[in-house]
Amino acid sequence: xxVTVEGPYISAMTYxxxxxxxxxxxxxxxxxxxxxxxxLVVVExxxxxxxxxxPPLDAVMEDVARRDYVLALRWSVSIWDYLGWKDTxxxxxxNTRHRWYNQVINGRNMxxxxxxxxxxxxxxxxxxxQQALLExxxxxxxxxxxxIDVAFSAQTPGQVDIKLSSPPPASSRxxxxxxxxxxxxxxxxxENRGRTITYSNIVRGTRPLDTANGKQIHMVDMTDAFxxxxxxxAILLQDSVSGKMLAAAHYDLKTARx
Length: 258
Known about the structure:
Structural class: alpha+beta
Number of domains: 1
Distance between the termini: 31 Å
Radius of gyration: 21 Å
Helix content: 25-40%
Largest sheet: 4 strands, antiparallel
Number of strands: 10
Strand content: 25-35%
Mean pLDDT: 82
């Protein structure tokens, strides 16, 4: 850390103030660094309330979401709404991301549920999808190869600054993902009629962040997230060609509101 002194003279108090201001800035960006960049394994589940095959993996995700080394996100899609029950948590961004993953990784437009992607790459394999998912998560744990660190700084009650440890690659895409920790839904029709299911880390909305010219610091306005009463947000930086996750972080908005 350096302090630039303008002019030939400076008082001791001014000098100390400049040092303190610089130190506060550095500390602000590192305060939530541990929460942001603990080599998180990103697990994304694409599921829907109208699919009878989805509840088992929804239950696994509920357990996975509690692990501090996992960033779990449930994307509610609407592809089975025509079967008699409209998914109450579905948003258009979920369908868009689901199609993007299948185009990038599988080279096709066909989608299905449930489908899981780990660290933005090909889904797990195995006869038992639940067991295969858990095994894949453990294999990925602690693998921080080519990962960019992320730090947060809460500047005001309505603004959070995001800092990347290095410039994002030209071929990358980054987005902020707002989500809620838990929702319980009573399903009244369709394949899961009569069931009450608790869902974890449900995506409520997304917003793209600019990665042009290697931009490393982003100022994010939290007004919309607060208005929706979202519980948290995640930062996802990925290679736009392969889908590979380059950086991942999460920030608790409940703490920011208190």
